[in-house]
Amino acid sequence: MKIAIAHDFLNSIGGAERVTLALSRIFPDAPIYTLFINRRIVGDFFTPLEIIPNKRFSYFTKNRFLTGFKNKKIITSSLQKKAQFLRFRHKYLLPLMPQAVEELNFTGFDVVISSESAWMKGILTKPETLHISYCHTPTRFLWVDREKYLAQQGLGFLQSFLARRMLSKIMIWDRLAADRVDYWLANSFLTKERIRKFYKKEAEVIYPPVDTSRFNLRKTKKDYFLVISRLSPYKMVDLAVLAFNKLGLNLIIIGEGSQKKELERKAKKNIKFLGFQDDEQILRYYKECRAFVFPTFYEDFGLTPVEAMACGKPVIASGVGGSRESLEEGETGEFFFKPSGDSLAEAVERFLKKEESFSPQKIREHALKFDRKVFESKIKNFVEEKYNEVKGN
What we know:
The chain is of the alpha/beta class.
């Protein structure tokens, strides 16, 4: 069985990228196809060797591999050079992405597994090739946050009119592209429902993996709360800034993104921004924090809360969305129910009143339900089962 993996783009290292890494560990001989790679952002995840151009529409990244992916072949689309020229401000490439996806060549593969939240559902495969999509979310800026996305762009009247027309065209493509997938996997039941609503497809839920063996308990803790996130508007880290400005408690924020400077301007001195940190440093901050704060509202799942729980740390998160599937209120953390700084601050205050009642051992035991080995077993079984069904074995 010859397998390929497809991922939207390697422009940062977040939950979706870690799922792609996990898929590549399961299928170590599978090349990874992606629209483009931002080597400056994900450089620590690569061995710095040259990119070798290949044919008309793609570039092979030979001997340039993600951590743990020795000898992995990574293939980028015709957008690689354009993305580099635009300094990876990929919103300017949106009109070109559908065509770039369709240009990728998957001839000769028995199975393609796409790890996607926007584009890779639209790849073109031969009738005999099985396409399984692991969906992190239906395209958020089209179906869930369209108006919010447009408002965040700061467009004038004419620009807004043109942008709406463009998004409408992409929405048509996105819906038709969903029909190219043979089988759907979802990262949560919330995503499963969104796939059913927007694409009229049924999906099986397999939760994303956390390598819980990397994490362990530490009895001592320091006086700070922790956020680890992309600093993008839809992650709503501004809610954490507002809440901790009000509370005056120490907060450490790890991550990079377009909203970083804006958040730094709003934050008081009790909030520190550490930017990008490697996995070793992130593990230390998990172990030493009082609790992990996950401010995103309507998140589809979220890996970082599970990583924090694998360290025995309580999580303060939205009570709406995928967090309800990974957390147990009062046992592994606290929920807030409105997308506001005040609501999050109230949840932190509730946590403070019963902080000592949370059991690190019980919290870690809960996190083990999402262990990498569970994910690997379910993915292997699903791929083999569907492949055998198609081949009539």
